[in-house]
Design brief:
6-stranded mixed beta sheet, globular, binds zinc ion
């Protein structure tokens, strides 16, 4: 019996080390979130392990890209206060996907329309669980959030006068979205900025539904943007820094992976 317990203990220990190693390696090698980075009036706010972007859409009104990991929304509220704005200044929240670390503070902003790509609506509303190896272990809890508008791939949505191009980039989740606003491309968790400051890499497999599908989505996005001759100034990632090398990092990734 004693020997059996020892073996069970050892197995648990090994599994724990493997799990910690996998999660740890997922975070190594990516560029740190650029807290306070600003481009075309769009500002990156670091909320712990994730970033939220504050996008001005009219005098005294903003939209957010994602709603962070902190359900009190402290970091975003501080940025709003810096602009002498309150939580009701947030008129829209564009979700890159429905994982819990991107939706936590939605309720802090009562006037915000919640917008997400169609296939992630049920995930955002807490009606289904996520599929990645780690996210699937989390309980399914209804979030009391209602998505006001489900985006379609290729749609252009207008926030006041500000056009937003919406691209489906399924893979990290089925309804992962990329957004292009004023030359700034938001990739959410579809990719990360590598610590070399030049290249992009995929989001860790442990958090993703399918890395192969994510790769194909990134290749397709690059092709679409190249074909349109889209002017991309910067690429923003949810868990890492900002790359200001135009579309080149995505094109380089696409060339390696097609
Ligand atoms: Zn995610």
């Amino acid at each position: 019996m004693k020997r059996f317990l020892k073996i069970v203990g050892l197995v648990i220990l090994v599994l724990l080390i493997v799990a910690i190693g996998a999660i740890g390696s997922a975070f190594i090698g990516r560029q740190a979130i650029a807290d306070g980075f600003e481009i075309n009036g769009i500002r990156i706010v670091k909320d712990g392990i994730v970033s939220v972007a504050v996008v001005p859409i009219a005098p005294g009104e903003v939209a957010l890209i994602d709603a962070g990991n902190d359900k009190t929304g402290k970091a975003v509220l501080a940025e709003l206060a810096r602009r002498q704005l309150g939580p009701d200044a947030v008129k829209a929240i564009l979700l890159t996907h429905g994982h819990p670390d991107h939706v936590a503070a939605i309720k802090v902003f009562p006037d915000a329309r919640v917008l997400a790509l169609g296939p992630d609506v049920a995930l955002v509303e807490g009606l289904v669980g996520a599929h990645g190896p780690l996210p699937r272990l989390m309980p399914v809890v209804p979030t009391d959030v209602k998505v006001a508008h489900a985006f379609m791939d290729g749609e252009t949505y207008t926030l006041n006068q500000v056009p937003v191009r919406v691209f489906g980039v399924p893979g990290h989740t089925a309804g992962s979205a990329a957004y292009l606003i004023d030359g700034v491309l938001f990739l959410g968790d579809a990719a990360d900025a590598a610590s070399d400051g030049n290249t992009i890499r995929q989001s860790p497999w442990i958090f993703s539904d399918s890395q192969a599908q994510d790769r194909a989505s990134l290749v397709r996005l690059d092709q679409t943007l190249l074909k349109d001759g889209t002017d991309v100034k910067a690429i923003v990632f949810a868990h890492s820094g900002v790359l200001v090398k135009g579309l080149a990092p995505l094109t380089e990734f696409a060339q390696k992976n097609q």
